[in-house]
Every structure is written in structure tokens, then in C-alpha cells.
């Protein structure tokens, strides 16, 4: 007597193939999601920068400040010092409208304060702020006296106060270290439509500029 004859695959084999197909589908969906995520981040970075915003000096309207650099400071970095009055605690203003992307501590703070101006230096930029102005343009403000007056994600207007001038981080005296960046590149700072004149750090030199960072109601 012949035994029972079966055709097709055993149930266990069919279940294994179903699981394999499901796994391949999940992996394909994960790969697609990863590609979309990379595209969302990478495509905007590959676009050419937009036109230069009309940046203003990051200090009060009508004030004259000294802009300078020195060997080893890095090309296009600008240090700003007031030409009159006390430096500590002076308002630091947004050069142009944008979105705050960083508001915190760069490196370490050190111990230089108005009460102890010769205290120990810290590292890096101390309290700092970074603002995205759109079109792949951004500005950076370093060595602030205390925690920034703005927070990450906050929209700021041109001329809005974002902090106070200090000497946190690797700083020898109260001043504002300032940068303008286009895409991944640091570039010469422009104020009120004109280049600042601070370019190479091959030698120490300074220029003076008057701030036109004025808003309605200011002289």
C-alpha cells in the first residue's frame, strides 16, 4: 500500500520564505528612508549661497569701534573693541535678521570678569552665539560676558541684543570676536554694504568703523 503523497513545500519552508521577503521589504524601506534623510540634509548644502545680506556691525547705532586682527588669529576673523567708554557688558547685537542655531558655551569659560579682569583664561570662544541668516550665510559672536540673551531656534531681528561683551574663553581682554561665513567658508566681513578691510592675519593691524546698526526709533 502506497503512503500518502504530498506536493508543494512544507509549511515551515513557506513561513521561512515569507519572513525573508518581509525582511527584504523592511530593509528596502529603511534604505529609502535613509536616502531621503541624506538628501534633505545634503541638497540644501550643495546649493550655491544666496546674495550677501546687508550685514551691520554687531554694536550700537552710531558708535565707532576698532576692528583688528593679529598673526595667528586666522584670516577674516575680526576682534572688535570700543574706542570710547567701558568695554565690559556693552550690548552685542545681531548683524542681520535670522535664526539662532547655537547659544551656549564653546570650549571653557575661564575666570575673566569685570571684577577679576586678569583671571585665568578659558579655551575656545566661551559664551557664544551663531545665527543662520538664510542663503547659507551665518554670523558668529564669541567671548560674551554671560549666557546669551537668546536661545537656539529663536528668530531675531537685525539690531536685536543677543548678549553682552565680555572675555570668556581664550580671551586676553574684553572684546567681541566676530565672523561672517558663506557656506562652509569664512569670508571677509562686510558692514553696511562695504568690506571691513580685515582679511589676512599675516600682520597686526586695525581699522575704525562707525556702526549703522540702527532700528526705528534710534537716532
Automatic annotation (TrEMBL):
All residue ranges annotated as the M23ase beta-sheet core domain in the record: 89-187
Annotated transmembrane regions: 23-46
GO molecular function ontology, one term from the record: metalloendopeptidase activity
Alphabetical list of Pfam families matching this protein: Peptidase_M23 (PF01551)
Transmembrane helix as UniProt keyword: yes
Keyword Transmembrane part of the UniProt annotation: yes
Keywords for this protein: Membrane, Transmembrane, Transmembrane helix
Protein name in UniProt: M23 family metallopeptidase
